[in-house]
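Open question from group meeting: does this chain pack into something compact, or does most of it stay loose? Before anyone orders reagents, we agreed to write out a predicted structure and look at it together. Recording both the input and the output here so the notebook holds the full record.
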Amino acid sequence: MSYQQIERMTPSAAPARVGQGTAVEQSRAVAEVQAAIVVAQQCPRDINAAIAEMRQSCTQPYLAERAQFRFPRGGKTVSGPSVHLARELARCWGNIQYGLVEMRRDDEFGESEMQAFAWDVQKNSRNSSTFIVPHKRDTQGGPKQLTDMRDIYENNSNNGARRVREAIFAILPPWFVEEAKELCAKTIRDGGGKPLNIRVADAIKTFEGISITADRIETKLGRPSGKWTEHDIAQLLVIFQSIQRGEVSVDEEFPAPRVTAEEITGAGTGA
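Structure tokens returned:
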């Protein structure tokens, strides 16, 4: 093993002097944790009130439309409850702290060591995960190295959001999360009380705004627009939000129709 390899494996020495600002921040962090525990014990959550607030939030279309995510993996589409829903449920449940911390940044190797956590202060139940985020972004031409500070920050945040979501869901009661998911799905299906035909027309108009025609939507759903159901409209809303957030691309969700050799030959003959 070379000297350079040994040097990389050796932990960096702690700084010999801690600045006044750092010392104040360390003291503040300790005091904040202690205060959070005291407040949580003195003001325990009201479960009935938390359930009522969750149910009220899940009837709001703004949350319901963002409560699901979709992204491609291994030729399939993965979906599930989003970080937006996780954060709202943590707020409703109360006495929960969560976050994402960049513990170390290594510009030489182009990576950041991150930690995502969620902590139920009242129950002292904590879930955390430490992971490495390469300073790279996947593109059609392969991974692209990131050097701009803002690009690195956004890449770290995007990768960390999924871990924060899982950490929050890990400390919330499963029944609380499942009811919220069902209520959000019901809110989307209901469509604010609009008749189904109007919601179909609105969906088609919305997708036309991102250059997706009605026939491409019909091809994906496998039925003409006149036979779309509430479930179809709900699925389209989730897909649209995922496209807007950059989780999936238009071509991944709505592949363009392929032109066969027979169609090309027939077109040429007709011309």
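Observations to bring back to the group:
The radius of gyration is 24 Å.
Residues 1-10 have pLDDT under 50 and may be disordered.
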